[in-house]
Amino acid sequence: xxxxxxxxxxxxLMRTGFTGLLSSPxxxxxxxxxxxxxxxxxPLLVMSPGSFQMEQQARLGGSSEPRPRSLKExxxxxxGAPAGPYxxxxxPLEDTVTCTLVFDQGxxxxxxxxxxxxxxxxxxxxxxxxxxxxxxxxxSAVVVSYSYVGVFSLxxxxxxxQLLVYATQAADxxxxxx
Length: 178
Known about the structure:
Elements: H1 2-18, H2 25-28, E1 29-31, E2 44-54, E3 66-76, E4 86-87, E5 98-103, E6 111-115, E7 121-124, E8 129-132, E9 141-151, E10 157-166, H3 170-177
Parallel strand pairs: 1-2
Antiparallel strand pairs: 2-10, 3-9, 4-8, 5-6, 5-9, 7-8
């Protein structure tokens, strides 16, 4: 995914750079992989991912061990059942959940209100979900922030990138490849 985004951005930059030097840079500079083109479509520059290798050992000691990670979820208030429960994406750590109501979201009158645990909302850690004791029906959304157990891992990798240049003349291929 990351390499695909990098290739797309690089292709866009190359198209801009080749404007005026290459006829139809939008169709002649593409992300690959792509098969061998027909003569009428050359010159053609194809950028594609090559081989990918990842180190098996973690780079830092202590990496790949569980540690708290922060998460912030925005949940739309359900008009039919505003009290909830609202499912959470991860199982929160005890005493880490905060909830903030958002009123008139996306308008100039947008405002927020912090809720208090056990007084305004309850958390089902096993669910995992959050339910509201206070009336939240006037709010547009609730922002739920919490920590959960995550695994952080740092590994080195190598990703090759290929730029293939197709042209009818060797001098053209060399010029475009430079």
